[in-house]
From TrEMBL:
The gene is fabH. The last Arg residue of the ACP-binding site is essential for the weak association between ACP/AcpP and FabH. The lineage of its organism: Bacteria, Bacillati, Bacillota, Clostridia, Lachnospirales. GO terms for cellular component: cytoplasm. It is found in: Cytoplasm. Homodimer. It comes from Faecalimonas umbilicata. Catalyzes the condensation reaction of fatty acid synthesis by the addition to an acyl acceptor of two carbons from malonyl-ACP. Catalyzes the first condensation reaction which initiates fatty acid synthesis and may therefore play a role in governing the total rate of fatty acid production. Possesses both acetoacetyl-ACP synthase and acetyl transacylase activities. Its substrate specificity determines the biosynthesis of branched-chain and/or straight-chain of fatty acids. InterPro entries: ACP_syn_III_C, ACP_syn_III_N, FabH, Thiolase-like. Residues 220-309 form the Beta-ketoacyl-[acyl-carrier-protein] synthase III C-terminal domain. Its EC number is 2.3.1.180. This is Beta-ketoacyl-[acyl-carrier-protein] synthase III. GO terms for molecular function: 3-oxoacyl-[acyl-carrier-protein] synthase activity; beta-ketoacyl-acyl-carrier-protein synthase III activity. GO terms for biological process: fatty acid biosynthetic process.
């Protein structure tokens, strides 16, 4: 069995900081940020919004898109590093808000690879016959974990949520690869909810441009595919230069690598499902296309999955 993506949804807060706003907090400039990252603005939650409310709104849109009722969902997995509270988990909070009373719910922390790992986990539940209709969410309020006086990190991150509905149907288990390397964990860390994100930017950059093309090649090799056979590569939206370097190393131009990081910055586990939802909504994704999702981030962790759309 395979989980077919039958619905997607996203939610980003209305409020945002553009690069000129950040010039007022820290010693930076619009041109430095655009040149080094490609980011122009990042959306920031209001007082009334939380990691849970964003996930809930993205999920409602995904349910509407898939035309299913909340009670049909039997599995909710939320990927997040910025839950409102330690307990209960975000997935249970979303379950309550949706009224998805037949779902089993848990959270998963794999940082910016979180959605990919959650998606892969949902696929394995479906393949094992443990779930028929899964809701997979990435949701983050990183503005709460950012030190707004640290110019090396505050320019990068934003808030938002994305969700996908996976429904079981006959088909082969999708190809996926995933990796972790705890030995390099200090490159990207955050001690607690009272702490801030600390990052060795260059170490993370080097890790991403090396490992992401390698793991995509590993995935394609498993399937006997060449990079040219893939219609779209939906990468974690951390930095335009990382996405461009991955495309180059795979011998491709950047056209097959859609990006929305200009608008949202790095939303960690939410970035892949937000982009997926935007591409589905705008009709870019068509039946029969081959799509690769690839995530990378703290842990360190990274991976890729093939979707037959
Ligand atoms: N504005 C102006 N100058 C800055 C800023 C800023 N916002 N931030 C740093 N600088 C300065 C530094 O202080 C340094 O100055 P110095 O030469 O006087 O010491 C100079 O710019 C160069 O700093 P570097 O850190 O070497 O800059 P680099 O070119 O590496 O760019 C960046 C920094 C954008 C963070 C880059 O390393 C990067 O993109 N790394 C990957 C980060 C990332 O994507 N992390 C998340 C991925 S994983 C995940 O999503 C969790």
């Amino acid at each position: 069995m395979v989980g077919r993506v039958t619905g997607t949804g996203s939610y980003v807060p209305e409020n945002y900081y553009d690069n000129y706003d950040l010039e007022k907090f820290v010693d930076t400039s619009d041109s430095w940020i655009r040149e080094r990252t490609g980011i122009a603005r990042r959306h920031i939650i209001s007082e009334e919004e939380t990691t849970v409310t964003m996930a809930w709104k993205a999920s409602e849109r995904a349910l509407e898109d898939a035309k299913i009722h909340p009670e049909e969902i039997d599995l909710i997995i939320v990927a997040t590093i910025s839950s409102n509270v330690v307990l209960p988990c975000t997935a249970c909070e979303v379950q309550k808000k949706l009224g998805a009373k037949h779902a089993v719910c848990f959270d998963l922390n794999a940082a910016c690879t979180g959605f990919l790992f959650a998606y892969n986990t949902a696929q394995t539940y479906i393949a094992a016959g443990l779930a028929k209709c899964a809701l997979v969410i990435g949701t983050e309020s990183l503005s709460k974990l950012v030190d707004w006086t640290d110019r090396s990190t505050c320019i990068l991150f934003g808030d938002g949520a994305g969700a996908a509905i996976l429904q079981a149907e006959e088909g082969d288990f999708p190809s996926m690869v995933f990796h972790s390397n705890g030995a390099q964990g200090e490159a990207l860390s955050c001690g607690s909810r009272e702490d801030y994100i600390h990052m060795d930017g260059q170490a993370v950059f080097k890790f991403a441009v090396r490992q992401v093309p390698l793991c995509i090649s590993e995935l394609l090799e498993k399937e006997g595919l060449a990079p040219e056979d893939i219609d779209y590569f939906i990468l974690h939206q951390a930095n335009q230069r990382i996405v461009e370097a991955v495309a180059r190393r795979l011998g491709l131009t950047v056209e097959k690598f859609p990006m929305n990081l200009q608008e949202y910055g790095n939303t960690s586990s939410a970035s892949i499902p937000i982009l997926l939802a935007e591409l589905k909504r705008s009709g870019v994704l068509k039946k029969g296309q081959k799509i690769v999702l690839a995530g990378f981030g703290a842990g360190l962790s990274w991976g890729a999955t093939l979707i037959e759309w």
